[in-house]
Write a structure and sequence with these properties.
Chain lengths: 158, 198
């Protein structure tokens, strides 16, 4: 395995120094196929995408309008494109209502709805360009601002 | 005797109201910096308060959002599983370019090996590739150049076997200099691509 590293590195260097740049790659608006990825997943975790429900395992991706649901003893950790992180404890439900992120200016909008359970949010680049970019709603309240870490508990915290 | 009745009432009131009211919500912030405005969504009982270092826990039980009846520490201890699911922080790497080009400096070629080593450490690696320029040239030209640099690196990482869906490339132009300079100053340390392995 050690020997494998070196050919890979040589290949990497050779490829990166090649000056031919595909013209197609230069585009101002970049394709963002997803908003967040699951990096930590314990116990029962599901992603509801329209009519379909997926196993929320490590590697699963979250898109706008998706729900993330944890069951008994479930927990999950997500990382968004702007490096925001959102983690959920057991018996929790979160909907990603809006996610627009311009990585050049850091402008955009990040709205989540915490229906129930426990959620910790650490806003990323989006919070830097304006305190109103990040919004969390719960059944009872709306929260907006530029906190570095926000904890939410809706119902009986576990 | 009077004080005993009041004490008894204070003890039993939360228990009684706990049964009658809908689930309570708690919100907390940590750290000295930053604040959140908490606005009630109940149109019949509008209310607003600020969540910050001076008022670190707010609760909402159907009446008005107001200072919480538990500490931030108590709330944290009630949500240990959520807090324990925090992903690893991103690991950052920086590659430097020859002026006005998308060709890497010699020193930066070695960094590519470290990037691949980090990728192997992660259960589900995805990469964010961000191009930067110095302040020579217009903002629009630098936006283009920074995207070009990031895309060059992205394309090569895809060729090396990383799933295209898991590499996002973007350019910050001259907005995030490593070394702040006046406009039109050539600064090699700002001509770079940052790669976050997450």
């Amino acid at each position: 395995m050690k020997h494998f590293k070196h050919p890979l590195a040589v290949l990497a260097v050779g490829a990166l120094t090649g000056s031919a740049t595909p013209a197609l790659a230069e585009q101002a608006v970049l394709f963002q196929p997803w908003a967040a990825g699951i990096k930590v997943s314990n116990g029962p975790v599901q992603i509801v995408h329209g009519e379909k429900t997926y196993n929320g395992r490590v590697g699963a991706k979250l898109r706008v309008n998706d729900l993330v649901i944890t069951g008994e003893n479930g927990s999950v950790g997500l990382v968004f494109l702007d490096n925001s992180t959102l983690t959920m404890g057991p018996d929790s439900e979160v909907e990603l209502k809006r996610y627009n992120y311009d990585p050049t200016t850091y402008m955009g909008a990040f709205d989540v709805f915490v229906k129930k359970g426990t959620v910790a949010l650490q806003p990323g680049d989006l919070a830097e360009s304006g305190p109103d970019n990040v919004s969390v709603t719960t059944p009872k309240a709306e929260l907006k601002g530029n906190a570095k870490q926000l904890l939410i508990s809706v119902g009986d915290a576990k | 005797m009077k004080s005993f009745i009041i004490s008894a009432a204070l003890i039993f009131l939360p228990i009684l109201s706990g049964c009658a009211t809908p689930p309570r919500e708690y919100y907390a912030v940590s750290g000295d910096k930053g604040a959140m405005t908490v606005t009630s969504r109940d149109a019949g009982k509008p209310g607003k308060t600020t969540l910050d270092a001076a008022n670190p826990v707010v609760m909402h039980d159907g009446d008005q959002p107001r200072a919480g009846d538990i500490s931030a520490e108590q709330l944290r201890s009630r949500m240990t599983q959520a807090l324990a699911a925090q992903p690893l922080p991103p690991k950052r790497f920086t590659l430097y370019f020859i002026e006005g080009s998308d060709i890497l400096t010699t020193e930066s070629k070695a960094v590519v090996t470290s990037i691949f080593d980090e990728i192997k450490q992660r259960p589900d690696p995805d990469l964010i590739v961000v191009g930067h320029t110095d302040r020579v040239g217009s903002i629009a030209d630098n936006d283009q150049l920074s995207i070009k640099r990031a895309n060059t690196v992205r394309q090569q990482l895809i060729k090396l076997g990383i799933d295209a869906e898991n590499i996002q490339a973007s350019g910050r132009g001259e907005r995030s200099p490593l070394v702040p300079t006046a406009d039109e100053v050539a600064e090699p340390r700002n001509r770079r691509v940052e790669i976050m392995v997450r």
